[in-house]
């Protein structure tokens, strides 16, 4: 009797151990990639460019933009970029769209900062005709993404029939993210200078160009996965998004033919990526083709979207308490970061067990 009990107990232990192992083996593992966008707010070098209005950001200019301030700005921007999404991935973003950068020199200096130098970033950048000399660019981890095509699309604006309004180009980069073809578009749409209504036609024109770029890719490959990101100077509910791009903010309404904008929900919840006159906006957005909403997760699919508003990025006191902590505030140097918070999304896909 005792022997049989011991035998039964022994085989029961073996059974239970085997069952636990099978359960553990059945757990699905996922690969996660972070896609981020950050308006770096006037990342200029200290050298005066006679062809652009960059005089303020020079040592003798209004901002007294010295090498020390430039190096502090690089440190702040790189440190922040390195932290975005790291609470989940333990690493910096795999793809980063940026705007308000002066040239490829500042981008090279940026990725060579201690916080980023070992991440293996590459840079894709074109000079835009913007009057201030600010551009958009894409940073990518070489071990994760292989660019196969890139092009800068010019946005032509006119204040009247004889006067050109120079602004930023829209950059599109196609490539392989872990052998999956994905396209990234980086934007910095025209500002609201002169008022939202008066400047609205410029952003409508930018939205039309963005839609044209997306449609041109889909004409070649109807199943192309496309992610558009940037500082749009419009909220998710503005006409440029709802009427021109026809974005959808509700997951249950999404299909492959519809552009999904997860920032729509964040905006409706009252979150913001920048503040103006005590009102929060979500001008910084990431939206994408509906085929990136895939419940099966057998290829890269959207998981979650966030605004990165860590406490150190927030002004802690004074008139602008609660706002993003800027490099300059009220005309005075504060050594902060940017007037925008970064935004990011996670893409995930199943790994083979």
Identify low-pLDDT runs.
Answer: 1-25
Q: How large is the radius of gyration?
A: 23 Å
What kind of assembly state do the chains in view correspond to? Answer: single chain
Order of secondary-structure elements: HEHHEHEEEEEEEHEHEEHEEEEEEE
Helix content: 25-40%
Give structural attributes.
353 residues, alpha+beta, seven-stranded mixed beta sheet, six-stranded mixed beta sheet, 7 helices, 19 strands, 26% helix, disordered N terminus
Task: Furnish the topology, listing elements before pairings.
Elements: H1 2-26, E1 30-43, H2 67-83, H3 86-89, E2 95-101, H4 104-111, E3 121-125, E4 135-141, E5 145-153, E6 157-160, E7 163-165, E8 170-177, E9 180-188, H5 196-220, E10 225-231, H6 239-245, E11 247-248, E12 259-260, H7 263-268, E13 274-276, E14 279-281, E15 284-289, E16 301-307, E17 328-329, E18 332-333, E19 343-350
Parallel strand pairs: 1-2, 9-10, 11-12
Antiparallel strand pairs: 1-19, 2-4, 3-4, 5-8, 6-7, 8-9, 10-15, 12-15, 13-14, 16-19, 17-18
Helix pairs in contact: 2-4, 5-6
Condensed summary:
With 353 residues, the chain is of the alpha+beta class.
How would you characterize the overall build of this protein?
- Residues 1-25 have low confidence and may be disordered.
- It is globular, with a radius of gyration of 23 Å.
- Helices cover 26% and strands 31% of the residues.
- It starts with a helix and ends with a strand.
- The chain has helices spanning 2-26, 67-83, 86-89, 104-111, 196-220, 239-245, 263-268; strands at 30-43, 95-101, 121-125, 135-141, 145-153, 157-160, 163-165, 170-177, 180-188, 225-231, 247-248, 259-260, 274-276, 279-281, 284-289, 301-307, 328-329, 332-333, 343-350.
- The strands form five sheets. Strands 5-8-9-10-15-12-11 form a seven-stranded mixed β-sheet. It has a six-stranded mixed β-sheet with strand order 3-4-2-1-19-16, covered by helices on one side. The protein has a two-stranded antiparallel sheet with strand order 6-7.
- Helix 5 (196-220) links the parallel strand 9 (180-188) and strand 10.
